[in-house]
């Protein structure tokens, strides 16, 4: 979990903001876990926790059975090599004063993997692999389009041969046609390099195309998790149902009636009692949903949800 202390207003008192609250996830080697939810639900904070950029307020983050908090300096340095990140904004995540070849090769220098001509050859190989040209080596980020910049970010993440890549909404700032190219590239790289991915997005259609398992996050908590096909064909939480109804379909026979959630996302400073979704849920019943928090339970084989009425409503 991760809680922040913050003021509400200029003269307000300090309150605790529960950005990530009681999340329990595991990721297997070679697997892609898709993490979906509205903006502000805690997805990016969870990514920073996993990367070790911020410490947890409670619980622990473990990599290959080793807690990040218990790692020595050398182990933490190795962890930085094994876990890389692709950022959401391809414009602000690249140093504008560095040439593209320097940006991609910087991690190779930091970790002492290669230098000189060998380093340049490795960088050129990565650039070509992600769809760039070797002629781009000496160009600056401002000379590239958004899709090309994101390819630079992908090459940078691949440079040190990581085992896990955290992709924090890597296509949300790109045009639809470019999104498809980047997603297909990530899938090819996953197979080629046997990578694990934590793929974060708010668009479930993108998550479905990329992921093996899916976790749905709401107000800092995981409300449903399961295999990709299970979540899409047999959702067990009303929030998942609402997200799925927003996916556009070309075929009119497959279109679903759009579910419009009432109200805004509740403030994480004062989350609702009982089920955190009950203020927007069309199925909520008093007093159960308003007073008793539903635990994240295994409703079906390897399919978990935190809803009191999963069996009744989504049979």
Folded structure, characterized:
- The chain starts with a strand and ends with a helix.
- It has 315 residues and is an alpha/beta fold.
- The longest helix is centred in the middle third of the chain and has 18 residues, at 176-193.
- It is globular, with a radius of gyration of 21 Å.
- An eight-stranded mixed sheet has the order 6-7-8-3-9-10-12-11, sandwiched between helices. Strands 1-2 form a two-stranded antiparallel ribbon. A two-stranded antiparallel ribbon has the order 4-5.
- The mean pLDDT is 92.
- Helix 3 packs across helix 4 (116-129), helix 3 packs parallel to helix 5 and helix 5 (146-158) packs parallel to helix 6.
- Helix content is 33%, strand content 18%.
- It contains eleven helices and twelve strands.
Largest sheet: 8 strands, mixed
Structural class: alpha/beta
Strand arrangement in the largest pleated sheet? 6-7-8-3-9-10-12-11
Order of helices and strands: EEEHEEHEHHHEHEHEEHHHEEH
Number of strands: 12
């Amino acid at each position: 979990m991760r809680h922040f202390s913050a003021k509400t207003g200029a003269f307000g008192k300090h309150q605790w903001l529960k950005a990530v609250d009681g999340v329990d996830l595991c990721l297997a080697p070679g697997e892609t876990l898709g993490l979906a939810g509205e903006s502000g639900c805690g997805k990016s904070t969870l990514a920073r926790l996993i990367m070790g950029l911020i410490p947890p307020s409670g619980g622990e983050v473990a990599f290959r059975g080793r807690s990040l908090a218990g790692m020595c300096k050398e182990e933490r340095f190795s962890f930085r090599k094994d876990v890389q990140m692709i950022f959401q904004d391809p414009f602000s995540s690249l140093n504008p004063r560095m040439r593209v070849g320097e940006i991609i090769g910087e991690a190779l220098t930091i970790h002492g993997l290669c230098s000189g001509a060998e380093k340049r050859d490795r960088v050129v190989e990565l650039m070509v692999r992600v769809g760039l040209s070797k002629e781009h080596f000496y160009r600056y980020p401002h000379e590239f389009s958004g899709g090309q910049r994101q390819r630079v970010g992908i090459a940078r993440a691949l440079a040190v041969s990581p085992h896990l890549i955290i992709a924090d909404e890597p296509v949300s700032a790109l045009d639809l046609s470019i999104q498809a190219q980047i997603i297909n590239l990530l899938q090819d790289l996953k197979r080629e390099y046997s990578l694990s991915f934590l793929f974060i997005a708010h668009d479930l259609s993108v998550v479905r195309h990329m992921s093996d398992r899916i976790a749905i996050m709401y107000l800092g908590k995981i409300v449903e998790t399961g295999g990709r096909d299970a979540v899409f064909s047999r959702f067990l939480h009303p929030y998942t149902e609402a997200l799925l109804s927003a996916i556009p379909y070309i075929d009119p026979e497959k279109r679903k009636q759009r579910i419009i959630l009432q109200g805004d996302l509740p403030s994480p400073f004062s989350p609702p009692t009982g089920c955190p979704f009950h203020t927007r849920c069309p199925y909520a019943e008093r007093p159960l949903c308003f007073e008793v928090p539903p635990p994240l339970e295994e409703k079906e084989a390897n399919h978990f949800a935190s809803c009191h009425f999963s069996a009744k409503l989504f049979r």
